[in-house]
Design a protein that fits this description.
The protein is of the alpha/beta class. It has helices spanning 79-92, 96-112, 125-135, 154-166, 188-201, 213-223, 227-233, 252-257, 269-274, 282-287, 299-302, 307-322, 330-345, 378-385, 412-427, and strands spanning 3-11, 21-28, 31-36, 45-48, 52-56, 58-63, 115-122, 138-145, 174-180, 205-209, 241-246, 262-267, 291-294, 362-366, 391-396, 399-403, 406-407. The chain folds into 2 domains: 3-56 and 359-407, Urease, subunit C, domain 1 (Roll); 58-345, TIM Barrel. Helix 4 links the parallel strand 8 (138-145) and strand 9 (174-180).
Length: 430
C-alpha cells in the first residue's frame, strides 16, 4: 500500500466547527489515515506543504462536461437563441468520440482548478464514464432523458445500462443516477415511471428545475402548477434522493414543498448570471434546512469550470440581493463547494471533508502569491481571493492527478489537439 505524507501545510478540514491549523496529513492507499500537528513516520512520497493550504477537493454538483468543446461559441445571446441556433445544432453533430474528448478537456480543466468530483448529465455516457476512469476523477453520471417524442424506450434503456454497467467502477469512483431532463421535457406518464423506478431500485435522481421564467410559464400553461408543484404531485420527493439543478424561480410555497427532501439543490450562479436567468433564493432554501451545493453547469453556458468562481459568485450575489454582507459567509460558500455538494452526490460519507478514514480527495493551494498574502483569515482568502490557477496539487483516492501545476494522469498535448480539431468541426457554419 503506497503512502503519501504532506508536511507543514495549513489544513482546512471543512468539518463543522473545525478551524484551520498547521499540521501534517498522512494518506495510505486511497484513504486519509491520520491528520495531526506532526506525523513522524516514513512514507513512500513526502510533499513539503509549507506555504500551502490543504482542503477537500471541490465538488461540482452539476455539469455537462463534454460541452467544453462549445466553450465561448455562443456567448452574449438570449437563452432560446443560444439554445436553438447554436447549442442544439452543434450538439446534434457530436459523436461518441467527441463526447469522450470533450469530457477529457473538462477533466483537465477541473483537475487543474481543484475539482476532484462532479455530477454529469448528458448522452453517450459510456464515453463520459471512460473519460472519468482515464482521468482518475470521481463522478456521479446520469443519462439525460427527454420524453417529448416516443423513442421506443431507447433513452430509458441507455440510462439503465449506464447504471448496471458503470455503478461502482473505478474502485467506486463512479456512481450513477437517473436523469429525467426537466419538468418541461418530461410529461407526467414517463416521468412517473422514472420516479417509481428510482424509488423501487433506490437510484438517486438528477433533474433540472425552474431554471428560466419561460420554463415556469410553460408548466403553468400545461398543468396550472409551478414546476416544483408538478414534481411534488408526481411524488418525486417521496423517498427519493434528488439532485435539483438550478432552482432559480421558486416561490415561497415551492421552497416549503422541498423542506425535508433527501438530496438538495445545485446552485449554479455563474451560468445563471451569464444567461440572465436570475438568482436562486438561497436564504429561503437554507432556512428550510434544504442542502445547497454548487455547480458550474456546462462550459457551453458558464464558459468556465473553475469552482472558485462559483464560490465567489454565490457569496457575492446573496450579499447584493439582501444588501447584507453577512448573508453568505466565506466559510459557508466553501462548504457549499465541498461537503454540501458531496451530500448532493450521495458521497459525503466518503469525501467532502478531510477526516481520517475518508477517501483522500484533496487539493493543495499555493499561498505564496501576492493576492493570497497576508493570511488573516484563510476562509476569506480561499473564497474571495483564490482561483483555480492557485491550485498546486490535486489528489483523488490517494493518487496525485496534478503536482506543481503539471497534470499527471492526462496528456494535455493530445487533449488540446483533439479538442481543437473536434470543436472546429462541430461549429463550422453555425
Amino acid at each position: 500500500m503506497n503512502s503519501l505524507l504532506i508536511k507543514g501545510c495549513s489544513i482546512v478540514t471543512m468539518v463543522q466547527g473545525d478551524k484551520p491549523f498547521v499540521g501534517d496529513l498522512l494518506i495510505e492507499g486511497s484513504r486519509i489515515s491520520r491528520i495531526a500537528d506532526a506525523i513522524d513516520q516514513p512514507a513512500d512520497t513526502v510533499i513539503d506543504g509549507r506555504g500551502m493550504a490543504a482542503m477537500p477537493g471541490l465538488i461540482n454538483a452539476h455539469n455537462h462536461a463534454s460541452m467544453s468543446l462549445l466553450r465561448g461559441f455562443s456567448d452574449d445571446l438570449k437563452l432560446m437563441d443560444w439554445l436553438d441556433k447554436k447549442m442544439l445544432p452543434a450538439e446534434a453533430r457530436m459523436t461518441k468520440e467527441d463526447i469522450y474528448w470533450g469530457t477529457m478537456l473538462a477533466a483537465a480543466e477541473m483537475i487543474a482548478s481543484g475539482t476532484t468530483a462532479f455530477a454529469d448529465m448528458y448522452v453517450q455516457m459510456d464515453a463520459v464514464a471512460q473519460a472519468v476512469l482515464d482521468s482518475g476523477m470521481r463522478a456521479s453520471l446520469t443519462r439525460g432523458m427527454v420524453f417529448l417524442e416516443d423513442d421506443g424506450g431507447r433513452r430509458m434503456a441507455e440510462a439503465l445500462d449506464l447504471i448496471d454497467n458503470w455503478s461502482g467502477a473505478g474502485d467506486g469512483r463512479i456512481t450513477t443516477m437517473l436523469g429525467p431532463h426537466a419538468p418541461f421535457t418530461c410529461p407526467p406518464q414517463p416521468l412517473s415511471e422514472v420516479i417509481e423506478l428510482a424509488r423501487s431500485r433506490r437510484i438517486p435522481v438528477h433533474i433540472h428545475l425552474a431554471e428560466t421564467v419561460e420554463e415556469v410559464a410553460k408548466i403553468r400553461e400545461r398543468y396550472q402548477q409551478t414546476p416544483t408543484e408538478y414534481l411534488h404531485e408526481l411524488g418525486l420527493f417521496c423517498g427519493n434522493h434528488v439532485l435539483l439543478a438550478h432552482a432559480v424561480h421558486l416561490t415561497a410555497d415551492d421552497v416549503r414543498l422541498l423542506r425535508g427532501m433527501r438530496g438538495g439543490i445545485s446552485h449554479n450562479p455563474v451560468s445563471n448570471l451569464k444567461l440572465g436567468c436570475g438568482v436562486a433564493p438561497l436564504r429561503e432554501m437554507t432556512a428550510q434546512g434544504i442542502t445547497v451545493g454548487l455547480g458550474t453547469d456546462g462550459a457551453g453556458s458558464a464558459t468556465t469550470l473553475d469552482m472558485f468562481a462559483e464560490v465567489k459568485a454565490a457569496a457575492w450575489l446573496q450579499k447584493l440581493v439582501f444588501g447584507d454582507p453577512t448573508a453568505l459567509s466565506a466559510e459557508q460558500a466553501l462548504r457549499m463547494a465541498t461537503i454540501e455538494s458531496a451530500k448532493l452526490l450521495g458521497i459525503d460519507g466518503e469525501t467532502g471533508t478531510l477526516e481520517a478514514g475518508k477517501q483522500a480527495d484533496l487539493i493543495l493551494i499555493d499561498l505564496d502569491k501576492p493576492h493570497l498574502q497576508p493570511v488573516h483569515d484563510l476562509y476569506s482568502l480561499l473564497a474571495y481571493s483564490a482561483t483555480g490557477a492557485d491550485v498546486d496539487t490535486t489528489i483523488v483516492a490517494g493518487r496525485i492527478l496534478m503536482r506543481n501545476r503539471q497534470l499527471q494522469s492526462l496528456d494535455w498535448e493530445e487533449i488540446s489537439r483533439e479538442a481543437s480539431r473536434r470543436a472546429a468541426r462541430l461549429t463550422e457554419g453555425l
